[in-house]
Amino acid sequence: MIKVVKTMKYEIKYNKELYNLLSDIQHAVWLIKNRATTAAYDWQQFSFGYNERFGEYPKEKELLGKTLSP
Questions:
Q1: Phi, psi of 5 (to 5 degrees)
Q2: How does DSSP classify residue 53?
Q3: Do the beta carbons of residue 67 and residue 61 sit within 8 Å?
Q4: Do 68 and 43 contact (CB within 8 A), yes or no?
Q5: Which helix (H) or strand (E) holds 49?
Q6: What is the pTM of this model?
Q7: Is residue 40 included in any domain, yes or no?
Q8: How many domains does one find in the chain?
């Protein structure tokens, strides 16, 4: 079997509005990731402290009203 690979070159026109939009989206995703990581770390630290104080880990459903999935 012979494979034939074709390549083509395209020039992408610079569009400042599109570039700014993509930059804003990238920044928003970065913020969300940082806040999610911080929230997960805070929950983990709270959970460890709770365990040391009360001898059991906190129940997510009771405290948050939801369960966290890994």
A1: -110, 125
A2: H
A3: yes
A4: yes
A5: helix 16-54
A6: 0.63
A7: yes
A8: 1
